[in-house]
Amino acid sequence: MVLSPLALFLALGAAATALAEPLRFVDCGSVDGSIQEVNVSPCPTQPCLLHKGTSYSINVTFASKIESQGSKARVYGEMLQVDIPFPIPEPDGCKSGIQCPIHKGHSYSYLNKLPVKSEYPSIKLIVKWELVDDQGKMLFCWKIPVQITS
């Protein structure tokens, strides 16, 4: 079967749209900000299948309710209601798409990477991603279910 150029274009467009769909997430305590959208790419379905040795793009659009000179991300793998710290390459929010200082009432796009190391176990867990302001208060906190796989 040979696909016409139009059919191929439509199929590729549908695939790209599926990869960019906003995720259903749980807000786990955004106090100083409000989350508008969370995207993990590629993650066309939930739970997100995170393949070992791959890096995933994180994009969070949020509005700030406060003024802050900076921000810092903290990421955890939550298993049996225990938060296990998960290292990310750049925890500084001001180096992750946010122009600092952060102003009350402004919207921001936080961009980062989630590397999944080959040595991680194959397991189902919850990813918990926090961004705190310069006073340690929560700008945003969200959770999504994931499955780490080979």
TrEMBL record:
Keywords: Disulfide bond, Secreted, Signal
Keyword Disulfide bond included in the entry's annotation: yes
TM spans (from-to): none
GO biological process: cholesterol efflux; intracellular cholesterol transport
Positions of the MD-2-related lipid-recognition domain: 25-146
GO cellular component, one term: extracellular region
SUPFAM superfamilies listed in its UniProt record: E set domains
Alphabetized GO MF terms: cholesterol binding
Gene3D superfamilies noted in UniProt: 2.60.40.770
Entries under InterPro entries matching the protein: Ig_E-set, ML_dom, ML_Npc2-like, NPC2-like
Segment forming the signal sequence: 1-20
Cell compartment(s), UniProt: Secreted
Family under the similarity heading: Belongs to the NPC2 family.
Protein name: NPC intracellular cholesterol transporter 2
Gene giving rise to this polypeptide: Npc2
